[in-house]
Write a structure and sequence with these properties.
CATH superfamily: Tetraspanin
Largest sheet: 2 strands, antiparallel
GO biological process, one term: adaptive immune response
Order of helices and strands: HHEEHHHHHH
GO molecular function: lipid binding
Keywords: Adaptive immunity, Cell membrane, Disulfide bond, Immunity, Lipid-binding, Membrane, Transmembrane, Transmembrane helix
Protein name: Tetraspanin
Distance between the termini: 9 Å
Pfam family, one: Tetraspanin
Strand order of the largest sheet: 1-2
Number of strands: 2
Radius of gyration: 25 Å
């Protein structure tokens, strides 16, 4: 005979929350893998200008997400099994893992908030260097190929509308379309703006997922402690 009454309800509630937590871990792992292999980011962040590689700060965050998603799936399974078996040892281990995960998530959130603008800034600086070198008639490195990859991937031209349009007058092979002169002026399709949109959209998605997971973790920590106390006070262990 196991726990009864409200404690039994908490047991199954914790199981449900852990299943959601396990599922959220799988979703985060899937999203992280998608971001890692997304054609836009891979096309840009795998570029190399001479001996200089494109900034990899974004990928550092992605690898952290992959690790977090995998650990969440393991911890979620541990919580589900511990709740069903009514094991204080497993629930205690589960609670400890949650505290560690929560602390890591807070640390990662602070790191992400501090570096959220730096990622786009580094990529824009990398693009600007390639763009300036590509405009040089005697450029012998792969700057032109790097710039064209940016333009074709992001459907943009130039660091800003004026510079991009000016480049088209005598370097029209840098941009993907013949009619980009007017489009660049009318729609303001600068690469700086496109880079900001690319990374801000992905970071926004990551931020929402982190908030949802944090709320679930808080509920699980509370429920696991209540269930542990209920099991300890029960006549059957």
């Amino acid at each position: 005979m196991g726990v009864e009454g409200c404690t039994k309800c908490i047991k199954y509630l914790l199981f449900v929350f852990n299943f959601i937590f396990w599922l959220a871990g799988g979703i985060i792992l899937g999203v992280a893998l998608w971001l890692r292999h997304d054609s836009q980011t891979t096309n840009i962040l795998y570029l190399q200008l001479g001996d200089k590689q494109a900034p990899n700060t974004f990928y550092v965050g992605i690898y952290i997400l992959i690790a977090v998603g995998a650990v969440m799936m393991f911890v979620g399974f541990l919580g589900c099994y511990g709740a069903i078996q009514e094991s204080q040892c497993l629930l205690g281990t589960f609670f400890t893992c949650l505290v560690i995960l929560f602390a890591c998530e807070v640390a990662a959130g602070i790191w992400g908030f501090v570096n959220k603008d730096q990622i786009a800034k580094d990529v824009k600086q990398f693009y600007d260097q390639a763009f300036q070198q590509a405009l040089m008639a005697d450029s012998e490195n792969n700057a032109k190929a790097v710039v064209k990859t940016f333009h074709e991937t992001l459907d943009c031209c130039g660091p800003d509308s004026i510079t991009g349009a000016g480049a088209l007058v005598w370097k029209d092979d840098l941009c993907p379309k013949k009619d980009f002169f007017l489009k660049n002026l009318i729609e303001n399709s600068s690469c700086h703006r496109k880079i900001d949109e690319l990374f801000s959209g992905k970071l926004y998605l990551i931020g929402i997922a982190a908030i949802v997971v944090a709320v679930i973790m808080i509920f699980e920590m509370i429920l696991s402690m209540v269930l542990c106390c209920g099991i300890r006070n029960s006549s059957v262990y």
